[in-house]
Amino acid sequence: MANILMISGSVRHGSVNSSVIATAAELMPNGVTPVIYTCLADLPHFNPDLDREPLPQSVVELRRLIAESSALFLSSPEYAGAMPGALKNLLEWTVGGTETTDKPTGWVNSSTMPNRAAGTYASLRIVLDYTDASVIDQACADVPVPRSSIGEDGIVQDAAIRSEISHALTALVLAIRPAESRVQ
Ligand SMILES: Cc1cc2nc3c(=O)[nH]c(=O)nc-3n(C[C@H](O)[C@H](O)[C@H](O)COP(=O)(O)O)c2cc1C
């Protein structure tokens, strides 16, 4: 059974990007299990001196979740023109492992700012390339998500936004299936 590891780049309570991730989990195509990563804030600062046995437990867990996933799906805010340090830190911890290699990866850019968080998503692509993840263009949705589109349950209610998220997920799942059938 395929599963998709879903990562919000925000550690803020009431985060728009975490709502996007929760919504994507709800919209997951049949037969695919969403696994929402909730430990972003628990990772130590990346330090090559720590990137050896015994690894910090939170890093072991992160790498296990990535290894067991069929694909990655992200949604992140931008701070000061770049991705949040917490998300960059997570990605730095993936460089030392091979778990992300060829992993189909998509995202939702939910920014409502005029610059559309361009710096974040350009550098996200660069960093994911370093980790040998496989960014699937059709699985990368560029859809502003205003706070007003999110219900009290933390789920995006707007039908057009939900549809964009669904399309991205469908493209991601299509990218998984050929990759997994090659292994079998
Ligand atoms: C300190 C700070 C810096 C920010 N810098 C940017 C920025 O450079 N570009 C941008 O598009 N948004 C910027 N924002 C806006 C956030 O990206 C935006 O509020 C986003 O929705 C937060 O995501 P979250 O709700 O998932 O935490 C900034 C917000 C804060 C608090």
In short:
39% of the residues lie in helices and 17% in strands. By secondary structure, the chain is α/β, with parallel strands linked by helices.
Describe this structure in words.
Residues 3-138 form the NADPH-dependent FMN reductase-like domain. It comes from Leifsonia kafniensis. The chain has 184 residues and is an alpha/beta fold. The chain has a single domain (2-183), classed as Flavodoxin domain (Rossmann fold, 3-Layer(aba) Sandwich). 39% of the residues lie in helices and 17% in strands. It is built from five helices and five strands; from the N terminus they run βαβαβαβαβα. It has helices at residues 16-26, 57-68, 85-95, 118-130, 159-183, and strands spanning 2-8, 32-36, 71-75, 104-109, 134-142. Strands 2-1-3-4-5 form a five-stranded parallel β-sheet, with helices on both faces. Helix 1 links the parallel strand 1 and strand 2. It starts with a strand and ends with a helix. 39% of the residues are buried. Bound molecules: flavin mononucleotide. The site of flavin mononucleotide has 15 residues, from helix 1. Residues 10, 12, 15-18, 77-81, 111, 113, 115, 117 line the site of flavin mononucleotide (FMN).
